[in-house]
Design goal:
Elements: H1 8-19, E1 25-28, E2 39-40, E3 43-53, E4 56-63, E5 66-68, H2 70-77, H3 87-94, E6 112-115, E7 122-126, E8 132-137, H4 138-145, E9 148-150, E10 153-156
Parallel strand pairs: 3-7, 4-6, 6-9
Antiparallel strand pairs: 1-8, 2-3, 3-4, 5-10, 7-8
């Protein structure tokens, strides 16, 4: 972000990206609430979902307008049960509020799973603060985090 001091959470995300050698552009997001379009300035908007497996978590990155397959995710992780933590648990696990969650600068470096449909895309994901997004190449993000690339395609959200 040019010309402004980023919020502490965005600064944490930026520091993590820099430490990983990951080129990220932090941009102000237009509008309030959930985006209504699957793309912003050509970048595919991505939701970062914190998924609990037992006592640990994983980040699942998937297109905003898609519903990923829980069955495919369970099969990939080799578990029978996964859940979504409540807002307090998600914050405790990541240091970020819902709607701002990102693996960048997370309180704990949980494993990252990238939906295969994001390969080759420029994406916009959470940056730790409401109204700010992190623009990055999905392939570079996957490499920086050692992310697993998995076909999680499910049904399209209505």
């Amino acid at each position: 972000m040019t010309g402004a001091h980023p919020p502490a959470a965005v600064a944490r995300a930026a520091a993590d990206a820099a430490a990983r050698g990951l080129a990220v552009e932090f941009v102000a997001r237009e509008g309030a609430g959930r985006p209504t379009s699957p793309r912003a300035d050509g970048a595919l908007i991505v939701k970062s979902i914190v998924v609990q497996r037992g006592t640990s978590y994983v980040f699942v990155l998937a297109p905003l307008d898609s519903q990923f397959s829980w069955a495919k995710l369970r099969a990939h992780l080799g578990v029978n049960r996964l859940s979504l933590p409540d807002a307090a648990a998600a914050f405790a696990a990541t240091g970020y509020e819902r709607g701002t969650i990102t693996p960048l600068g997370s309180a704990t470096a949980w494993p990252v799973i990238l939906d295969a449909s994001l390969v080759g895309e420029e994406i916009l994901l959470g940056a730790g603060s409401h109204g700010i997004g992190a623009r990055v190449l999905a392939d570079e993000l996957a490499q920086a985090f050692g992310a697993e690339i998995v076909d999680l395609a499910g049904e399209q959200a209505a």
